[in-house]
Every structure is written in C-alpha cells, then in structure tokens.
Specification:
Elements lengths: L27 E4 L3 E5 L3 E6 L6 E6 L2 E2 L12 E5 L5 E4 L5 E10 L3 E13 L2 E12 L4 E9 L5 E6 L3 E4 L5 E4 L5 E4 L5 E6 L8 E5 L3 E8 L6 E8 L2 E9 L2 H5 L4 E3 L3 E8 L2 H13 L16 H5 L2 E3 L6 H14 L4 E4 L21 H11 L2 E7 L2 E3 L3 H5 L16 E3 L5 E4 L5 H18 L3 E5 L23 H16 L6 E5 L11 E3 L9 E2 L2 H6 L5 E2 L12 H11 L4 E4 L1 H4 L5 H15 L2 H4 L3 E6 L2 E2 L3 E3 L5 E3 L1 E7 L6 E7 L5 E4 L5 E4 L3 E6 L1
Parallel strand pairs: 23-24, 23-34, 24-25, 25-29, 29-30, 30-31, 31-33
Antiparallel strand pairs: 1-2, 2-3, 3-4, 4-5, 6-7, 6-12, 8-9, 9-10, 10-11, 11-21, 11-22, 12-20, 13-20, 14-15, 14-17, 15-32, 16-19, 17-18, 18-22, 19-20, 26-28, 27-28, 35-39, 36-41, 37-38, 39-40, 40-43, 41-42
Helix pairs in contact: 10-12
C-alpha cells in the first residue's frame, strides 16, 4: 500500500511533515484546492494550486529549505530571438500561468509539469513547460524546461532553473574553481562560476556549514558552456544557471526547444564531502571524460614518476646552468615546463613559434640526456592578429565571433590584443597538429604543454564557416576533444606527453598531466574538491604559483598542500631553486619529493578520501601572500587497488609537534618531516 500524506485541506503556506514510522515506497503527488504536494521517501515539495506558480515547501527529510519570510523568485528567464532578429527576454510575469499537471511513470517517478503561455506572435500563444521530477527513493530533485516556438524563432539564452532557498547560519559556498574555492556567504554576496574553465572545473555548487550541505548540479554530458550564479538576499539565496544556447537546440525538434540536460538539487546532513561523493562523483563515471581509468590514458611510465617540476624561462647560459644544477640536486626524472623558447615576448606572436631561439634544441638534448623531460609551452587558443600568419593563413576565418560578428579579443600582460580562435575551425586544428608534431620532431622534446584549453572558458561563436551550430552549446568542447584525440592518436610520438593548464573536467582523459596554478588562493579558502572527485583518474602538478622568495615559509606550505592533495611537486624557477639562501628550503623540498616517490600506489590512481587537520599542538601561521594554515596537516588516501588506507602527515614547522588525530590517537611528528600512518 502506498502511504500518502499532506492531502488534507491545510492552507498552502503550511508545511507538510512526516510522522515517525511513516513510509513512502513510491513517489506520490496530491492536489488539493490550495496546494500541490509532491513527495517521495526523502523529499517533500509544496506548490500553490492557485493562479500563479509559487513554491511553499522544499523539505529534505526533516530540513525545510524553502525561503523564509515568503521570499520567492521567478523560476525561469528565457531570451527569444524572433524572425526579425531581435531578442526578447521573458519571465513568468510576462506569461499567462496555465497551472500544473502530473505525469506518472509506473511508480518509478512522478513529474509535475508547470505550464505558462506567452503571446510571442499575434495569432498564437506558445507554451513554456517546467518539469520537476521526483524518482523513487531519490535524494535529488530534477529540474527540466521546454518551450514551443513560432516558425523562424529560436531561444538564444536562458537562466534556468532559478531556485530560491534559505541560507543556513554560518553558510559558506564552494565553487569548483581549481582545487575548489570556499567563500563566506554574507547577506549581499554575489558569486559566479564559468564552466568549463579555471573558475568552474566541474558542474556543481555547494552551500554548506558544519552540519548541512545544499547541492546544485547540472548533469550535462556534453559539457556545454554555462555560468553558475549565486546571489544572496538577506537570509535567502538564489541559484541559477546562465546559458547561451546553441541554435541547434531550437531547430533539433521542429517547433520545440528542450534544454539538453537535467539540473538536480539535494541536501544532506553532515559535511559537504558527503554530497560530493554520494551524488557528483558517481555522475562523473557516466561521462565520456570520467569513465576512463588512469591507465587507459596510455601515458608513458615517466610521467607517473615525475614527482617534481621546474619551469625555466628563456634560452641563455644562466638558465641552462640552473637547469643542470636543479637536475643534479633533484635527480633524474624531473619534468620541465619551458617558457619563452621562441623569439618573441610571452603572449605575443602566437602561433608563430619557429624558428626557436638559437641553442634551444641543444639545451633540450642536454637536459634530456641528464634525465629531465622537456615540455615546451605553446598556447592552444590565441592568435595574435598582428602576425604575418594571421594575414597569410586567413586568420579572420578562424576567429571566434560574437553575435554582432566581431571577434573576441583578449589582452594579457603583454598588452598585445589576441584573437580567440574557434577550435572547430579546420585551419586552426591543422595549425595545432602541425605545430605539435614539429616541436617534437625538430626540437626533440618529450611532449608539448598546450595552455588555455582546460583553463580559459569556451566561447559562444556565431561564425557560419566553422561547421558548428551558431551560439553556445557543446561544440567547443566537442571540437577540442576531437582535436586532442587526433593529436594523441596521430601526432604524439611514443613516450611523449601532452599537458595543459588547469583542470576543466571535460578534458581530463586527453592530457597526461594537469598543471594546477590558478586556484583563487588569495580570494578564498581552498578545499580539496577536485581530488575528492578525480584523484583516481588524473595526474596533477603544483598547487599554485610559486613565490620568488623561497625562504619565508610559503614554499613549504605550497608543497605540503601539493603532496597531501596528490599533485607532483614544485613548478619552480630553477634559478630560484639554486640560490644559496634557499639551501635549507630545497633540502626539505627534496625530502618531500623522496617521500612522494614511495607513495605512487596511492597518488597514481588512488582515491583521495578526506583532509585531516590534527588538533592539539598545531599552531597556525600566516604564509606571505597565500593563506593562514596549521603547520601540521594531513590527508587520508586509499590505494588504487584494494581497501588499504593510509594517513599522510606533513609538518612544515621548524620544531616538532605532538598532535591529536580524529581517532584521539596522539602522534609526534618531527620538524620539517613527512609521515605515513597505515590505517
């Protein structure tokens, strides 16, 4: 028997409750004169059944998350582009609300369909339908939207779903920027995260305190361009996804538009890590990029053993001497990201890298004979419009175009305007493939470092000669995935690697290593969100940009964090590394490197489980230009095969400390030391 509750004549604003012992074996929906109730075993939703849409209740088990003080927000904003080419943004306030009906899927799920009609043309009204679904025993609410369109109309953008919830006391927000960025939520906070990019590596947002977590996520297998927006107003918070659509979505089903992914929201008691491991991590194993094991990347053995990276800049005797000394100190197997090896200043004259500076090819050969692996830098996205190649190779035909037909222009520290190249352009793809092969073949490198692919955002493009539908959507990621797959298959020499900067999830299976340096460390508290999800399927290096001064404690802190969160260490200028005043710091750095070498069975394909901050004698220190942190930190990991777990501890202080683990056990860890505790 299905037990149904909440179907009396209570006023709509009253909250439904479950009594102890009540059971829901399948989702149920109930309509009264005032209210519509949708519930399953874990979730209870209450809506108005009057002449307007309003959500009164959003209860996850016993926790009411509906906004306080009657606060609400419109659930969608849609921008239509008419046959006249003009955009019209509509909200429910400009539409006629038709009511709600239910759709039952054989006791497995129930969907409430809320319908509005908009007079887009003089002769006919066109429907917008929002679908809210609860499945049997699910912890998540599913949100979808579809709309009917007049002939020759499209939907060019939308904000959906717009969800208002109460903001618990002492709430913080976690965005998937880099490693994971945590912000304090104040009554007027406004934050955003662009996906896929360095500011949004994954498709989720978390609002939490020490006791609970609200979860917002899109389940988009195509990794389309989108922006997660979070706006606080008093004691309430509004979440929504801003989307520039692909015109294909309006043309695919004649006369109808449907957003090609579902958004889910949920809530759990306890720490935010529970929501991530319970809901997001399982989703990633269903994706094209996340279902592949680390071993399936077919990366060479050396990249698994490259426990430290250095980053020489320029081609001269001082740089080469520092490289020789760094390899002498650190030993064979060092990776090198080599910058400014071509004849132009950084961020200028892309993609004109040849010929390389005189002597670079010989430096590469010597470095690799000494036991290093040279991966030179190129940019996989920008084309300097002042270059000869832009004129002779028809660069204008490659540029990603805004809706007004003008190219996207980006200016960095060089102050040179660079056009953004559309990765779907055949011209650009051929340039990248030829360049990557030439670097390996003529210079003899161990691979290529292609910047910006997993760091810079995908851009909507309205060019009509690139072979993709105009607007946003999944074309950008699809094009880069096709390009990188071709390069890995046909243009990457055996034993060589491809790296990129940052960690947009939709590319992780196409690169042998991800350089992690752009997390907003000075604006937020970093949390290990990315390793919690993807530690078993990626190799990462670094933690953030390394300071020029290695002696003020920051260098220790950054490498402690790299070690504990699973990244290969360093990404340090070899000239700084070989300075006499840095000797003590480099000794500890090398000690951490050697410790890491003994833990490959955990860091290469193992599972990061959680961060551990020991209590007791564990003072905090402020590290210049970085963060305030306890001097002893730890992380729990599980071996890539089997259930063996370990706890890694690092003490970056100059004195030993006796600290207490969560189990209550006390551990003494020596000054400037690393420790592994088998659990």
């Amino acid at each position: 028997m299905v037990f149904v509750f909440g179907c009396g004549t209570m006023p709509a604003q009253e909250r439904i409750t479950m009594k102890k012992g009540d059971k829901i074996y399948a989702p149920t929906a109930c309509f009264t004169e005032d209210s519509v109730f949708l519930q399953n075993k874990n979730i209870e939703l209450v809506f108005s059944n009057k002449n307007t849409y309003k959500m009164y209740g959003m209860k996850f088990n016993s926790r009411q998350m509906a906004p306080v003080d009657g606060f609400n927000t419109h659930p969608w904003e849609i921008t239509y582009r008419g046959a006249d080419g003009k955009n019209h943004t509509m909200t429910p306030e400009q539409a006629h609300y038709k009511g709600v009906e239910k759709r039952d899927s054989k006791n497995k799920s129930i969907t409430l369909i809320f319908t509005w009609e908009i007079p887009l043309t003089a002769d006919k009204k066109h429907a917008v339908r929002m679908l809210i679904t609860l499945s049997k025993n699910s912890d998540l609410i599913e949100w979808d939207i579809e709309a009917d369109l007049p002939e020759n109309w499209i939907i060019s953008g939308l904000n959906f779903p717009r969800i208002a919830v109460c903001r618990p006391q002492n709430s913080k927000l976690i965005l998937s920027a880099g490693w994971g960025a945590e912000y304090i939520l104040e009554p007027s906070t406004s934050l955003s995260s662009r996906y896929p990019s360095a500011s949004g590596a994954m498709q989720l947002v978390l609002m939490h305190n020490d006791n609970e977590c609200f979860y917002y996520s899109t389940k988009d297998l195509g990794a389309s361009d989108k922006t997660y927006q979070i706006n606080c107003s008093g004691n309430n918070t509004v979440f929504y996804t801003g989307i520039t659509t692909s015109e294909e979505w309006s043309h695919k089903n004649k006369g109808a538009f449907r957003l090609p992914w579902t958004t889910v929201t949920g809530y759990c008691f306890g720490e935010w890590e529970t929501a991530v491991t319970q809901w997001y991590k399982p989703f990633t194993y269903t994706t094209e990029w996340g279902r592949k094991t680390l071993s399936s990347h077919n990366s060479p053995k050396w990249i698994y053993e490259a426990d430290v990276w250095i980053r020489p800049t320029g081609v001269n005797n001082n740089v080469m001497e520092a490289v020789r000394e760094a390899i002498k100190i650190l030993g064979k197997g060092v990776g090198l990201h080599w910058y400014v090896w071509h004849h132009h200043p950084f961020d200028t004259k892309y993609p004109e890298y040849f010929p390389p500076k005189k002597g670079f090819t010989a430096m590469v050969a010597e470095t690799q004979k000494l036991g290093g692996y040279v991966i030179p830098y190129i940019n996989g996205r920008l084309w300097d419009s002042a270059t000869t190649s832009y004129r002779t190779m028809n660069g204008k035909e490659v540029s990603c175009l805004k809706s007004d037909g003008t190219p996207y222009i980006e200016i960095y520290g060089s102050k040179v305007p660079n056009t953004v190249s559309c990765p779907a352009s055949a011209i650009w793809q051929n340039i990248q493939k030829d360049l990557i092969w030439k670097i390996q073949d003529e210079i003899g490198t161990a691979g290529v470092y292609i910047d910006q692919i997993a760091a810079a955002p995908s851009n909507p493009c309205w060019a009509d000669n690139h072979g993709h539908a105009k607007g946003g959507g999944e074309f950008w990621v699809r094009a880069y995935r096709d390009l990188m797959t071709d390069i890995r298959t046909n243009h990457l020499k055996k034993g060589n690697i491809l790296t990129t900067e940052e960690n947009a999830e939709c590319y992780i299976d196409l690169f042998d290593m991800l350089l992690m340096v752009n997390s907003p460390i000075r604006k937020s508290n970093l949390v290990p969100l990315f390793p919690l999800v993807y530690s078993d399927r990626v190799i990462t290096s670094a933690f953030t940009y390394t300071p020029a001064d290695l002696t003020n404690g920051s260098f220790r802190y950054l490498n402690m964090m790299s070690l504990l969160w699973g990244a290969q260490l360093g990404w340090i200028d070899p000239i700084a590394l070989t300075k006499e005043n840095a000797k003590e710091e480099i000794e500890f750095f090398k000690k951490m490197m050697l410790f890491r070498k003994q833990q490959h069975q955990f860091f290469n394909g193992g599972h990061f489980l959680k961060e551990i901050i020991p209590s007791g004698d564990n003072p905090e220190k402020q590290f210049h230009n970085y963060a305030k942190s306890p001097v002893v930190r730890g992380a729990e990991w599980k071996k890539r095969r089997g259930n063996k777990k370990v706890l890694f501890l690092v003490n970056i202080d100059d004195i030993k400390h006796t600290v207490s683990l969560p189990s209550g056990k006390q551990i003494t860890i020596d000054a400037k030391d690393c420790m592994r505790i088998d659990l």
